[in-house]
Design goal:
Elements (H helix, E strand, L loop, with lengths): L3 H14 L7 H30 L6 H10 L3 E5 L5 E4 L3 H5 L3 H4 L14 H12 L4 E8 L5 E12 L5 E11 L1
Antiparallel strand pairs: 1-2, 1-5, 3-4, 4-5
Helix pairs in contact: 2-3
InterPro entries: PAS, PAS-assoc_C, PAS-like_dom_sf
Keywords: Chromophore, Flavoprotein, FMN
Protein name: PAS domain-containing protein
Length: about 170
């Protein structure tokens, strides 16, 4: 019969010869959350590219990628009637809505009594004239609490120069 001590010693010797670092279990949670965020933004980027292809967007995809992955902006896309046709998954972190809850609705659903009418007028004029805009507005979460939302919006043109969508890059700010 083989002595198990020899086996155990061989395993110990082998493991010591390996060059790897053992991470504490606690770090797995951080890694997993970051990995999930990367996966989610990749899925959002693919969905955005599909929407762009469907509507023949004339837009710099590198800018979209940077806004989504590096800046971690929430991205909301509406049709020309201002109905939401796409929202990134990270919108939930900002306002507690899942993207499928807001599809087909107007972004006005995030507004309330504390939302500045003068700021909304700036947005409205920019949309009517197909111009880009940048504002910070008080929006409302699903639970009714408020947050300051920085929004940089712009029309999205197709290859023929026709406005086919509006896109907004958003982020909660202090």
């Amino acid at each position: 019969m083989i002595d198990l001590k020899d086996y155990d010693n061989a395993v110990i010797k082998f493991r010591k010869s390996l060059n790897y670092t053992v991470l504490p279990v606690l770090s797995w949670d951080f890694f997993a959350k970051n990995l999930e965020s990367i996966k989610s933004s990749d899925e959002d980027m693919i969905a955005l590219m599909n929407l762009g292809s469907l509507n023949s967007w004339n837009i710099d995809t590198e800018v979209l990628d940077e806004r989504l992955k590096v800046n971690k902006n929430v991205v909301v896309v509406t049709d020309t009637n201002l109905n939401i046709v796409f929202a990134t998954k990270n919108i939930w972190e900002m306002n507690q809505y899942h993207p499928n809850e807001i599809l087909g609705k107007n972004p006005k659903m995030f507004q309330g009594i504390k939302t500045s009418k003068s700021t909304l007028k700036i947005v409205s004029e920019a949309v009517k004239t197909n111009k880009p805009f940048e504002v910070t507005v008080v929006n409302y979460r699903k639970d009714g609490s408020t947050y300051n939302c920085w929004i940089q919006g712009q029309p999205v043109f197709d290859q023929k120069g026709k406005v086919v969508n509006f896109i907004a890059f958003e982020k909660e700010v202090a």
